[in-house]
Design goal:
Helix content is about 35%, strand content about 25%. By secondary structure, the chain is α+β, with helices and mostly antiparallel strands. Bound molecules: zinc ion.
Length: about 450
């Protein structure tokens, strides 16, 4: 095993074993363990290392190589150190063991995203140790609390420590899974934006009464059932936005496949011919989605309920605002709209970075050293990452990595927050070398 591959493997195993499980509560995560681990790893490499711990246990770590020219661009490589919980009974190997089995490191976070957090750290240390003194500044950020809302990690740092984490360009999770285009060349998706989440609770009202005489009662549960059905039946408008168009056109697929997927009138018929997983993804990329997920209501078996609360997970496209969402709900509910009150809303709008940037060009150039004839293609993420905090400051932020072809796109998607999460050593080597190549390309004179 080459030195860097051995190093990134070992670091990843330790990050997995730290088990920084974030269950959404303030007292979970305890990412301080991994901040300590990384501080120890960087020791003696000549990097400027700082820690930020807004609440006890939730530490993030910044390491930087200061550029020689203040007007040159700054690149920030960001990996999170927390992971989601894992149910060990469902795994073939201990999710927090970090075992190396047949050339793969197993454990929670092996793909999301301790693999990249580790490879970014090794690349940064390698660059510092090699005496890399670029024009632009390179910042490495190991951030806490990505798997909840980013409150104690990226949100805190972008709001309170702009001097530490301010950058022109950010790379974080996730992308770079090789897929084959229609012409046989490799395509590497870059996440250039992500959908917003607008989580809300709807209260559906009724009139209480004795459940022994239900005739002509105003039963909130019955109304709620109709509300949920209308939301499920609602067909939001198909939006063919620029990154969707560029993604499809970039895949070099036959025109008979591409044309209907770029036509709002034929889009849904085209989806019906695709495998379900792909159809779901394509639908989410081009529509606002509304999913009723939780319902609470009623008090007692013999009481007609006067209130039912229904929670919705709504995901918005770039440019959509809360009034747009409210208009969609009104349209979906029709004459039931006045039976519904919106109680709580957590609106986190979509974000998107431009595609024509020096970082884009650097990623394209650097990737070709690993996959000759590869092309990078933009994608919109349907989930959220810490990139959103940086995009809101005007930073260009992409999700990227580089993976071997041992893993299929489907394998990869299934392992995110799923069982038997693991990564192969070749992927660890590729991403480590990619970060070094991108930093040299973008920041060097
Ligand atoms: Zn992640």
């Amino acid at each position: 095993m080459a030195t860097s591959t051995a190093e990134v493997t070992d670091l990843l195993q330790h990050l997995i074993r730290n088990a920084c499980v974030n269950d959404g509560t303030r007292g979970s995560g305890f990412e301080t363990r991994s901040a300590d681990l990384l501080a120890g790893y960087f020791d003696g490499a000549g990097l400027d290392v700082q820690r930020y711990e807004p609440v006890p246990g939730r530490a993030s770590l910044v390491a930087r190589i200061e550029g020689r020219r203040p007007d040159a661009p700054t690149l920030l490589l960001m990996g999170h150190t927390d992971v989601v919980p894992a149910n060990a009974d469902r795994w073939r190997h201990d999710p927090f063991g970090g075992e190396l089995v047949d050339g793969e490191v197993w454990g929670r976070g092996a793909i999301d995203m301790l693999n990249l957090t580790a490879s970014m750290a090794v690349a940064t240390r390698n660059l510092a140790a090699s005496g890399f003194r670029p024009d632009g500044t390179l910042i490495y950020l190991a951030v806490a609390d990505e798997e909840a809302l980013g409150t104690w990690g990226a949100e805190h740092l972008t709001h309170h420590e702009p001097d530490a984490v301010g950058a022109d360009y950010v790379i974080t999770e996730t992308g770079g899974i090789p897929v084959t285009g229609g012409d046989g060349d490799v395509r590497l998706p870059v996440l250039v934006g992500e959908k917003g989440s607008c989580w809300c609770t709807l209260r559906i009202g009724g009139t209480p009464g004795h459940a022994s005489q239900p005739y002509a009662t105003d039963n909130a549960l019955v109304t709620a059932a109709r509300v949920v059905q209308r939301l499920a039946d609602y067909r939001p408008t198909t939006r063919i936005h620029d990154s969707w168009r560029r993604f499809l056109e970039g895949m070099a697929l036959p025109d008979e496949v591409v044309a209907p997927l770029l036509d709002p009138d034929r889009f849904l018929d085209a989806l019906a011919t695709l495998p379900t997983g792909m159809a779901r993804q394509f639908h989410a990329c081009t529509h606002t989605t509304i999913a009723p997920t939780v319902a609470h209501g009623g008090t007692k078996t013999n009481v007609i309920p006067d209130a039912v609360d229904v929670q919705l997970d709504i995901r918005t496209l770039p440019g959509e605002t809360l009034p747009d969402v409210q208009a969609m709900l009104d349209e979906a509910l029709g004459d039931l709209a006045d039976r519904v009150t919106m109680l709580e809303v957590h609106d986190d709008p979509a974000t998107e970075s431009p595609v024509d940037t020096p970082l884009w060009d650097s990623l394209a150039r650097a990737s070709r050293a690993f996959y000759a004839d590869s092309h990078i293609v933009p994608m919109l993420s349907v989930g959220a990452t810490d990139a959103r905090f940086f995009r809101r400051l005007g930073t260009t932020a992409y999700g990227f990595g580089l993976f071997s072809q041992k893993l299929t796109f489907d394998d990869y998607v299934t392992m995110f927050h799923g069982d038997d999460e693991r990564v192969d050593l070749e992927s660890l080597r590729l991403s480590t070398e990619l970060w070094e190549a991108v930093a040299r390309d973008l920041l060097a004179p």
